């Protein structure tokens, strides 16, 4: 009799406990569903929070239409329902984007700001054409000051030989095939000599000959030497260290030659003493002489 009473008491307590648990679950589900319903009706489906203004701003190179495609946000989308981290991540995956910020401005404006990478140099590489035949095409990649690799902003990666605008940025040449394969858009190049060439471009822009000398090509094929080809057709060899000192010496040598109407044909600034220089007539002087002879012939 006592054991039966104990058993009945335990069953009663168990039924009561199960009933309480079920009641708690039902109340929780009702509150959850009710909260979600109110959240959808008052926030996520509220026309007051629909996007009416998409404010995209860049540094002026990337087109706004391209940013819209990367962000994948349309007018009429709910502003509070957007995943801002997803939008920021998708935009920053583009190789030409250095950083992006995405902000909500209630009740109806999404603001996107993009800081772009500034190209400092370009690399040309030969690869098989799209047809997969024996024809090769020259493809260019651009690099910023940190060595970050990116495609050209205009989307045209194939070099057209007749297009002289391709010389607007210094061309880095002399890289080996396995080094060229490591240059992937969206990643930073970790080649030491390539970093030295980018450092040279940065130092050159702050030197006394910036804007006076046109630096066309930087050849990396020589060990421990950066070989520059200028717009005048001259050749200048620099060591990878003490670049500012060598650039100052370059400026003094060039100024000395200008006094006599001469331009540098070759100079080796990688040596510390007795710098060898070969001179040629200044292209400006040659042009003036040709003009004078043309006028005299008439």
Structure explained in plain terms:
- By secondary structure, this protein is an alpha/beta fold.
- The chain has three domains: 1-45; 48-116, Roll (Ubiquitin-like (UB roll)), CATH 3.10.20; 121-286, Rossmann fold.
- Helices cover 37% and strands 24% of the residues.
- It has a nine-stranded mixed sheet with strand order 6-5-4-7-8-9-10-11-12.
- Strand 2 (97-105) and strand 3 (109-116) form a beta hairpin.
Low-pLDDT runs of 5+ residues are: none
Enumerate the strands of the largest sheet in spatial order, edge to edge or round the barrel.
Answer: 6-5-4-7-8-9-10-11-12
Strand content: 15-25%
Q: What is the typical, i.e. mean, pLDDT?
A: 83
Topology of this protein?
Elements: H1 2-44, E1 53-57, H2 64-71, H3 84-92, E2 97-105, E3 109-116, E4 121-128, E5 136-143, E6 149-150, E7 171-173, H4 177-181, H5 192-205, E8 215-219, E9 225-230, E10 235-239, H6 243-258, E11 262-268, E12 277-281, H7 283-297
Which features characterize this protein?
elongated, alpha/beta, single chain, Ubiquitin-like (UB roll), 298 residues, nine-stranded mixed beta sheet, 7 helices, 24% strand, Rossmann fold
Summarize the structure.
By secondary structure, this protein is α/β, with parallel strands linked by helices.
